[in-house]
Specification:
Shape: globular
Order of helices and strands: HEEEHEEEHEEHEEHHHHEEEEHHHHHH
Radius of gyration: 23 Å
Largest sheet: 5 strands, antiparallel
Strand order of the largest sheet: 1-2-3-5-4
Oligomer: single chain
Length: 446
């Protein structure tokens, strides 16, 4: 399966139009930002574009530095909703925890430059991205093998503290945060996850639909996520490669829906008390003071954060090796062995911090348990998108549930109808894609 090239071209066109407008207005940005600091003169030191945002670093006359970020249309599927959720999370985490988060000085859903939503925040100076320090190489999303146990423990100890800080924040719903007019923050919006963003960006299918309200239980939320995957499979015209692939993916989705109840914990934590998680929580979004001390001075990029089932919060972390578990080659190979070694170090630091805070070891115990009861792998499928049955998370679940192939096979007429529908969709898509490619070639020749 490939991504929908038509959707990607349309989104790239949106981004290019925004980039053009940014270049036209760039000379006005410094003066505009200065208006949020009593008119003190500022200068743009640098600007750069990440996966979702264009950022400008500005320096004022007194050497104070701010960062302004614009979500880029076409890179972000819903810039307004993404930004208002991000600001709410940053303000709450900064106010209610000891996690170092840049201070937000101003934000809005529009500006007089015509560049759309923006956040103005502190720029984190004199720091380095932990992801850059710990990656095997710039082009490799793999944890270096030569990091000392000392360094791992220094970082894991701080992240363990972050987890316990976040654990103290309880929410009544599963959803996204918002700031009301009185500046109070509530989990009263439907969640926007990185999965939803990526499905729409690369398939053209908006799986978020028209839901505006949060979820009241883990079971309700997980079934909704399963519906998102099924909707992408149905509606993306090239979600399958051929008829055999269509049958395999349809069976996989039906089997996943059938086993879903086995991995939902119906305890009180999943019914009435939810926690804040961030889909983009990783080393690359942690800024450390230097490579030796490894003091985390900022945690950035909270845009894909939302309140989630407690079982997701208390699952073994997926960021330990940089490479996400759903992208491992196999579920029980060398990557898993290295993961377990890092996990034991992290959990030992978490247990020490739990003891220091005179807490029980509930969080560390549940993280260990998530590997034995399979929820660790189940959550990978919840986070992931565009997945087929050959992914390591599903292979691990199949090993745990040998009867899985007998579960919930769709009726043959239903399966045949799906395969025929996808065959026709793929034919139309292929013709349209080829026509677009031909037109682009002709346009370049002219």
């Amino acid at each position: 399966m490939d991504w929908d090239e038509r959707a990607e071209l349309a989104h790239e066109a949106l981004a290019l139009r925004w980039f053009s407008k940014f270049r036209e207005q760039k000379f006005r940005i410094a003066d505009w930002v200065s208006s949020y600091r009593d008119g003190q003169s500022s200068t743009i030191i640098s600007d750069y574009c990440g996966s979702f945002n264009w950022s400008c670093r500005l320096r004022f006359e007194d050497n104070v530095e701010w960062l302004i970020r614009f979500p880029v249309p076409g890179r972000v599927m819903d810039c307004d909703e993404k930004l208002r959720r991000e600001v709410a999370v940053m303000c709450l985490v900064r106010e209610k925890t000891k996690i170092p988060v840049p201070k937000v000085h101003a934000w809005g859903l529009s500006n007089n430059l015509g560049l759309g939503p923006f956040i103005i925040m502190d720029y984190i100076r004199d720091g380095e991205s932990l992801g850059n320090l710990w990656r095997e190489a710039p082009e490799k999303r793999t944890l270096r093998t030569d990091i000392s146990e000392r360094d791992l423990r220094i970082v894991f100890r701080q992240i363990a503290e972050f987890y316990l800080e976040l654990s103290a924040l309880e929410f009544p719903n599963i959803g996204s945060l918002s700031i009301r007019d009185d500046q109070s923050i509530h989990a009263d919006l439907s969640p926007i996850t990185l999965k939803m963003q990526e499905i729409e960006a690369h398939s053209g299918v908006k799986v978020r639909g028209h839901r505006l309200v949060p979820f009241s239980s883990a079971r309700e939320y997980f079934y909704n996520v399963a519906e998102q995957d099924m909707e992408q499979l149905h509606e993306q015209p090239n979600s399958i490669d051929n008829e055999d692939d269509a049958r395999a993916k349809y069976n996989f989705r039906h089997q996943f829906n059938a086993v879903l109840p086995r991995f939902v914990a119906d305890d009180k934590y999943n019914q009435t008390s939810f926690r804040l998680i961030c889909d983009d929580f990783r080393y690359g979004n942690m800024i450390v003071n230097n490579a030796s001390d490894l003091k985390i001075i900022a945690v950035i990029d909270w845009e894909w954060a939302y309140t989630a089932p407690y079982q997701m919060f208390s699952s073994a972390p997926r960021w330990l090796l940089i490479t996400k578990p759903i992208l491992w080659e196999v579920p029980n190979g060398s990557q898993f062995q290295r993961y377990m070694a890092c996990l034991e170090l992290f959990l030992s630091e978490l247990e020490l911090e739990e003891s220091r805070r005179t807490q029980d070891h509930r969080l560390s115990n549940l993280m260990r348990k998530s590997l034995s009861d399979g929820r660790f792998w189940f959550h990978e499928l919840v986070y992931g998108c565009f997945t087929a049955a050959d992914n390591p998370a599903w292979k691990a679940i199949c090993e745990m549930l040998p009867d899985i192939s007998n579960l919930a096979s769709p009726p043959q007429p239903e399966l045949d109808a799906f395969v025929e529908k996808k065959r026709k969709q793929l034919e139309v898509y292929t013709a349209e894609r080829n026509a677009i490619k031909k037109d682009r070639v002709l346009a370049r020749v002219e």
